[in-house]
Amino acid sequence: MLETSARLLRLLSLLQTPRDWTGAELAERLSVSTRTVRNDVDRLRNLGYPVHGTRGSVGGYRLGAGAALPPLLLDDEEAVAVAIGLRTAAGGTILGIEETSMRALAKLEQVLPSRLRRRVNTLHRYAEAVPRDDTGPRVDADTLSSIAAACRDHIRLRFDYRSHDGSESRRDAEPYRLVNWGRRWYLVGFDVERADWRTYRVDRLHPRTPAGPRFTPRELPEEAVDRVRRGVSSAAWRHRAQVVVHASAERLAERINPAIGTITAVDDTRCLLDTGADTIEALAVHLGLLGVDFTVTAPPELVALVRELGNRYRRATKP
């Protein structure tokens, strides 16, 4: 009986891998006959595990989704990763999952072997996160789940939205991707009324019900992460500048990430960089770190500061 129980646990572990297994493959892995595999599959079904089977040369077995969540079998590394993830989630940016994460973590730690529990507790005891200056907004877990489901099922979202300047509006958008950056969540979607791609802060939107109709997915014009980087940076800039950089657009693009600004080619040796920063001083420093020559003509305060810094550096190198 013990041998049968151990074999069932091994079979369950194999079936939890997201793929189809033929009877012959399972029999080889378990060192049993295909008839024993069929009997063991029937035992798992009687225990409530939804094991789906298909006949034919390309048929096989797969563990499906059931009405209730079955026990999961994790190897050592998976168990440690889940425990660390649950502890991190308890202090994360998603509102409403702190208590749930701690309950799940308590259940997991209760059944962890002592050697794994020691690894998890050691990391928790001796590893600390540096508190952020800006704690950032919290996002409701149900809101994130609803948006993710709309992305998956290609369903339009209707929501009230508050822009960074405080203005409020009602939006109708086709959702495509959720992006987590730091302590904030962003939605990349196609705004139907404005007929253009937009990036929305999830903590600033309030979904309305019912949701909109299904839509035919469009092709994303760029990677969702790159779009968020560019959109978030430009929205946060207090000072902007257009600078002529004496290098090709391709060369400059290799030196900076999309969050720095937008690059437009002028010719083979020059390009236009539309960039910005929270302060004029930071903007001047960032330009100096480009590693290539540039020409700045506006705004006047940036021109004056670059000239002042140039004179200061020149004096600093005099013998």
From TrEMBL:
<keyword id="KW-0804">Transcription</keyword>
<dbReference type="InterPro" id="IPR051534">
    <property type="entry name" value="CBASS_pafABC_assoc_protein"/>
</dbReference>
<dbReference type="Pfam" id="PF08279">
    <property type="entry name" value="HTH_11"/>
</dbReference>
<dbReference type="InterPro" id="IPR018356">
    <property type="entry name" value="Tscrpt_reg_HTH_DeoR_CS"/>
</dbReference>
<dbReference type="InterPro" id="IPR013196">
    <property type="entry name" value="HTH_11"/>
</dbReference>
<keyword id="KW-0805">Transcription regulation</keyword>
<dbReference type="InterPro" id="IPR001034">
    <property type="entry name" value="DeoR_HTH"/>
</dbReference>
<dbReference type="Pfam" id="PF13280">
    <property type="entry name" value="WYL"/>
</dbReference>
<dbReference type="InterPro" id="IPR057727">
    <property type="entry name" value="WCX_dom"/>
</dbReference>
<keyword id="KW-0238">DNA-binding</keyword>
<feature type="domain" description="HTH deoR-type">
    <location>
        <begin position="4"/>
        <end position="59"/>
    </location>
</feature>
<dbReference type="InterPro" id="IPR036388">
    <property type="entry name" value="WH-like_DNA-bd_sf"/>
</dbReference>
<dbReference type="Pfam" id="PF25583">
    <property type="entry name" value="WCX"/>
</dbReference>
<dbReference type="InterPro" id="IPR036390">
    <property type="entry name" value="WH_DNA-bd_sf"/>
</dbReference>
<protein>
    <submittedName>
        <fullName>WYL domain-containing protein</fullName>
    </submittedName>
</protein>
<dbReference type="InterPro" id="IPR026881">
    <property type="entry name" value="WYL_dom"/>
</dbReference>
